[in-house]
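Folds abound. Consider this:
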Amino acid sequence: MAESVERLQQRVQELERELAQERSLQVPRSGDGGGGRVRIEKMSSEVVDSNPYSRLMALKRMGIVSDYEKIRTFAVAIVGVGGVGSVTAEMLTRCGIGKLLLFDYDKVELANMNRLFFQPHQAGLSKVQAAEHTLRNINPDVLFEVHNYNITTVENFQHFMDRISNGGLEEGKPVDLVLSCVDNFEARMTINTCAPPLVVAANIDEKTLKREGVCAASLPTTMGVVAGILVQNVLKFLLNFGTVSFYLGYNAMQDFFPTMSMKPNPQCDDRNCRKQQEEYKKKVAALPKQEVIQEEEEIIHEDNEWGIELVSEVSEEELKNFSGPVPDLPEGITVAYTIPKKQEDSVTELTVEDSGESLEDLMAKMKNM
């Protein structure tokens, strides 16, 4: 009996994937709000009003991106299709990403109209269903796979991990990036670890982190800024341009953007986290080491076409005579310079030699000076 249920569940999952794939391949009709645009097999850089990719492909002409069309080879999973996740999905869709996997279990409500993506007529639909319909009409070239369930439950977690590992642009390959756009701690822990989520979040009271019924972000401006920064770094990472921000905060009250580099904690309480750290170290160690070649500084010769030379006006003997006594220092320590002798000493000696006065008279004069 248990085996039959398991086989049925696997078959349901297969049918869901096939249905999502078939929906993605459908061309929207003119009545669906998509304008009836046919799928484009190859991105073009031709600057014409009918080319939806002309402004994006211009990044290649500007020298910012070496091959923008590579964007179509990537698959990105977005967990949480709320205020940030929905706008993130729309931006990536307009950029022409290859495939989007959307995970959420909530429904669209009229209270969500403070956000930039959902519309009143979509109230009552699941967020992933509403998002897929809108996004497919925006860009039919993108493949979509949607899952309407809570990833933190035991029965859904394994399926979620399976799709992350095998739901890439080519079935059986992993996705290229997973974007966490959720508003609760439990879901974040589920995304960041590979252990059963209920074990990870068992001793944490989420009410201490967020008040009941209060969303962490409520302004469309805040969500738009955060989503824009997130997608900008996704594009920089995938297309290899610019500098990716590993951690970038946003204080909307002061328009302050703190940045920092975050390192893994080798004493992390999560056993799977420590395991992944060790696997990453082995992966890095296996990479071929690049030899650092130090370039020798170019020697500038003293000879020049004008015959100009830098010559000291003071000889070594003169410099030694005018230098003060060198203190007795331990081996390996030298002085940068010494206090020169006072000029009055030499003047006094000349005076003694040239003057006709007696030494006693000169001594008396020096005392009175």
Observations:
- DSSP finds twelve helices and four strands in the chain.
